[in-house]
Amino acid sequence: MKITKKIPDSFKTKTNKINTRDLVIPPSEKTNIHNHHDREYWSVKSGEGVLYSNNKKVKLTSGDYIEFSPFEAHTVENLGNEDFCFTSYWYVDWESLLAVFDQEQQFDSKLMIETAFPTPNGPLHLGHLSGAYLISDIQKRCCELIGIEYFSYCGTYGHTNHIDKTAICQKVSYDNLVSRSEEAIFTALERFQVNYNSFLPHFPSSEEFQYSKNMFLNLLNASPFLIEREVDHPYSEASKEYVCESYVAGGCPQCGEITIGIECENCGLYQDECNLIAPFHSVTKENLVLKPVNRLYIKLEKEISDKLLIQMYCNNNAMSRVCYDNYNKYLDKGNLKYIPVSSLRKKVYLYMVNRFFL
Ligand SMILES: [Zn+2]
C-alpha cells in the first residue's frame, strides 16, 4: 500500500479496462476487511478515514491517492463526524498476478484442507455440497493442478442432540440413525466425486477416529485454559434432568429472537444454552428452571484471541479475512469468553474432572 498525491504510476490507465465505483462510509462505520486479485487505487474526495493495510494504520484525507497491490488486504474506518467519500478504480493486472502465483508455489510444508464435518442425522442436500464440500474440493483440485502438496480430511460430527432428536422423531436408535446417515453421506460425496486423504466416520468408530479423539482429549485435558465453573443450567422439573443444546430454546441474548442452545439461526452467533432468556424445552415446550451445576469451559484469554486474530489477518487470502471479520464480531459481542466443552446427557455429567467419557 502506498499513498501519493497523484494517480499511481503503476496504474496503467490507457492499456486496461478500468472499473470504477464511488463509495461513502458514514461516521463510525467501516468496510469489511478484504483482498482481491485486482490492482486498485482509491482517490479520496472528502472526509477523514483510517486505513488498515499491510499491518499499517494510516490517516486518509481529501486529495490522497492510495495504491494497493493485488491480494493486499485493506479496510477503512470513518472516525470523523462527516461522511468519508472516495472513488475506487481497479482492473486485473495479469503480470502482477503471475508474479504472486510464482511466489505461492514455494510452500515448504503440506497445505491442510479441512471441510466442515456433516452431522450424521440425515443425508446431505445440495446446500451442503455447494456450501462446504464444493469449495474444499476446488481447493484440492487446484493444488493437484499446480503441484502443491496437501492433506485433506473430513468426518462426521456426532455427539450432538440433533441426532438424538431426529432419532426419537424417526423412532430409530441413535446408532441406527448414525450408520444409516453416514452411508447416505458417503454415497452423496462419492456421486459428487469428492474424496479425502482421511475421513473420520463417527460410527462404527474407526481406529483413526479413536486415535484422533484421544489425541484431542489429551490436549484438551492438559490445556491450562480448561477450567471448571459453577453455572446455572436449564433443568426440567418434570423429568428431573438437565436439558442441553438443541433441546433448550429461548431468547437469544444478542438479538432477542427465539433460538436453540447451540447457535442463533437469526444472528448467527454462538449460544451457550445457560445464557438463553426464559428457556423452555424445544420439544415438550415445558418452561425450564435454572439449577446450578459444575461444567468444563475453555477460557479464551485476550492474549490467545489476539494471537488468533493476527494469524487470521496475516494469512493472505480472502477466506481468512472473512473469518477475521466474523471472529471479531463474536469477540465484540463477548460470547466467546467461556466456551463450554462438556455437555449434560440425562441426569449425569459426561465427564469427571480430568477424565472425559465419550
Ligand atoms: Zn441471535
Please describe what this structure looks like:
With 358 residues, the chain is an alpha+beta fold. It has 7 helices and 22 strands. The strands form 7 sheets. A 5-stranded antiparallel β-sheet has the order 1-6-3-8-2, with no helix packed on it. It has a 4-stranded antiparallel β-sheet with strand order 13-12-17-18. Strand 19 (344-345) and strand 20 form a beta hairpin. The longest helix is centred in the middle third of the chain and has 21 residues, at 126-146. Zinc ion binds next to loops.
What is this entry, summarized?
With 358 residues, the chain is α+β, with helices and mostly antiparallel strands. It contains seven helices and 22 strands. The chain has helices spanning 94-104, 126-146, 161-170, 174-191, 207-222, 302-314, 318-333; strands spanning 2-4, 19-25, 39-46, 49-53, 56-60, 65-68, 74-77, 84-91, 111-114, 150-155, 198-200, 226-236, 241-242, 248-251, 258-260, 277-281, 289-299, 338-340, 344-345, 348-349, 351-352, 355-356.
